[in-house]
Amino acid sequence: MDTARLKSSTWEGTKVLITGGAGFIGSTLAIRASERGADVTVIDSLIPEYGGCLYNLDPVKSKIRINLSDIRDSYSLRPLIENVDILFNLAGQTSHMDSMKDPHTDLTINCMAQLNLLEICRQFNPNIRIIFASTRQIYGKPAYLPVDENHSINPVDINGIHKYAAELYHGLYGKVHGIRTCILRLTNTIGPRMRIKDAKQTFVGIWVRQILEGAPIEVWGGEQLRDFNDVEDVVQAMLIASQDKNCFGKVFNLGSEEKVSLLKLANMLIDLHGSGEIKIMAYPPERKKIDIGDYHSSFARFKDMTGWEPALTLEQTLRRTLDYYSDHLSVYI
Amino acid sequence: MDTARLKSSTWEGTKVLITGGAGFIGSTLAIRASERGADVTVIDSLIPEYGGCLYNLDPVKSKIRINLSDIRDSYSLRPLIENVDILFNLAGQTSHMDSMKDPHTDLTINCMAQLNLLEICRQFNPNIRIIFASTRQIYGKPAYLPVDENHSINPVDINGIHKYAAELYHGLYGKVHGIRTCILRLTNTIGPRMRIKDAKQTFVGIWVRQILEGAPIEVWGGEQLRDFNDVEDVVQAMLIASQDKNCFGKVFNLGSEEKVSLLKLANMLIDLHGSGEIKIMAYPPERKKIDIGDYHSSFARFKDMTGWEPALTLEQTLRRTLDYYSDHLSVYI
Question: ipTM of the predicted structure?
């Protein structure tokens, strides 16, 4: 991996803004960017159903600026964005079921606020660089594997439709208004600081909670293949993309060569923890309608462009995740 | 064309709702549906910049219900939708330049109101049939010609992004909630009742005004190929689709075999009118960024499914359009 561009000197004094910066990925990014010398501000709404958690930022709380606000508050965004060099745009409603139950809220967060944010950039900070965190969810049920960036877009829920619209906004503001934007489509991202209270962010979160609490891991289906990225690898990818001029105006998948069935993943967790059991659950009908079967990503385009590839194996990720939550369980449940 | 399904008996007592029903296509549809015996209600906001014009409905004003309201008014929609058999969903912000200047308004009309409308259908009228009027604009610059429904989606403006999101909503509410929705992607639609005050709806509108007022026709570029549908053919397509169960859950292009350059079209208008001149205009830079070059549609999928094809030639359309506006110019400028 070409880490030369990530040396600390590049980041000294760089003004970084992270929306959703108290969340799982956002907080990890805030820590790593701050360690490299960046001048970091995070925005987070701390909506209880989402991923924001102030404890996530504990290691850097004295070094960064934490602005608690909602990206839907259009007036507060302007002064926060005006002087920023790099915006890591991670805030969003991410629950698929919630988007189906309350599509309006998903629209206001994932589209309206995004459009407003880009308008502020266009008007008041056109030199900004933006890394937008998108999701493999927009591909829907794969027509082929691994899924690359040319795969057709078939969102299976309102969340996917809105995330894709937000991608298109970022692309359009690049093409028409010259804003440098790069879109990263994340696959399943896991690791310390993820939400484990429930399955709203990732099913692996609730599994970690179940195993640490001595409850059976509830596996829905089980045969589906998935790929996983450690949050540190995802953060590394975002930092790299933000420094590489060839990444702007483009869309990239992240992903992993390592793909496992859900059942295999559950068994890996049990082996690493030393105990645990699995309870196979029947898919409820409303979930079946949006089931996508197997999924894994090709990240060849991003690897070819930047040299990035995952540094951590799935086993390493699961081990350090279990360790983190063994130490901090009470904070996260 | 299989006109059997369009015989009046099918329509007697059918409750039809048309959003944007005082507009160009909506009013023509209201007239034809009412003639067939349907019980027609139209909704229109009459926003001056859009296509709504009460005079358009003059031929049927005593036979239909005209409800002047904005589809963004969520509470008024429910009682209007609750007992409807067929919804022709035509209301929208359609100006591409306006969507770039004021993306927020485009979002509220083309996404938020659409989502709300579909939620009302899901909750209170799941047996409704919906024909959604979409646009060829979502394809962006063609990768090949004629453009069929498998062409990639590359919107060149905010309006295209939002129209595509609204398409995806309609598809999703079909797949997940069982609402019968059919999407028609319209190409350039022209004819009596189109907006001729300016080019907000179609450039052919302002050309008709210019030629009738003795001003030169302002042609931007001129070599670009386009296809055109007469509004009566488009209305026929919508009526057919609404009666054909095989059309639901699907997306269809409309279009024409006849494609002409803009310059040829301007000359056809001048020949039919008997006088006129052309002024070639240089493309302004902000327009050039979203220029798509040549465009024409394949409507083979819809023809194969329903037998529909355009009945009127471009010359017939232009002739009857000039006749209509010669008689009614003062009403429309």
Answer: 0.90
